[in-house]
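Model the whole thing, not chain by chain.
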Amino acid sequence: MSVLDTDDEHWFDDDAGRLIRPYTVSDGRTEPTTRMELLSMVIATGRRPPGQLGTEHAQVLGLCGSVTTVAEVAARLRLPAVVAKILLSDLVDWGAVDTRAPDPMADCTNLTVLETILNALERRI
Amino acid sequence: MLSNDGSDGFPSALKLLIAGGFGVGKTTFVGAVSEIEPLHTEELLTTASVGTDRLTGVEGKVTTTVAMDFGRITISGKHVLYLFGTPGQERFWFMWDELSHGAMGAVVLADTRRLEDCFPAVDFFESRGIGFLVAVNEFDRACRYEPEDVRSALDLKPDTPVVLCDAREERSATGVLINLMQHLLTQQARR
């Protein structure tokens, strides 16, 4: 993408929402190159991607300064999750972002995890 | 954002579902317990195209856009809890396995004025073996029913908890999640 303006205000309208079609952002692509889920974790690696980043890729990378999820990146940029995944997978391909799928062990059969959550919730009230 | 001292630098994201009928307070519940304002996104999910014409050679699958609101509770540097509600798909969201895939458990919010609205969610979680409880959201404290009345009206299994809550109150909604965790622990201990 060759858009140089990084000011969000030009791209969002309070009533209309995002002013360009979501798949324009992904160059018409509908499949990410790296398989990601809504709760896949992502973080910037600190490595600079080759060349100049387009606005959308730069925005995505900017949200990955500390570890976060695909779902949060999508929501904060007001993009459908699949478009966020495509942009993130580009950044993964360029070595600028690291990702990890949700841990299959951290599920409802893991007593230690359940107890950890229970204790943390009890401390909140 | 999230703290970060997992073994490989990534905490684990854990998923809970907040289900129930239209206008029952799912997003309100998520907002009450979440440490961030509830966020909104849309995901493409595939589902079998039941009840539509099937063309020869065409896979019986369709993709549908599902809107979801979600919130977050950081448990520790290693675990982060995400709560997903699905506004706008009250009747159909349960068709999408991808949404429930990996969910630890679920809260089914119920409004006693429209108790039948939560039947699909109850059926779904029972059939998939996903641990859940029913939380009766007490709107303006009207129409108060005893939990046992709700249990028999919904034909719940004896071990499925029914609790009362105010989805607007952080303490109350957090209490529901505590009850859910206790229920999931009890279920595991029995296995």
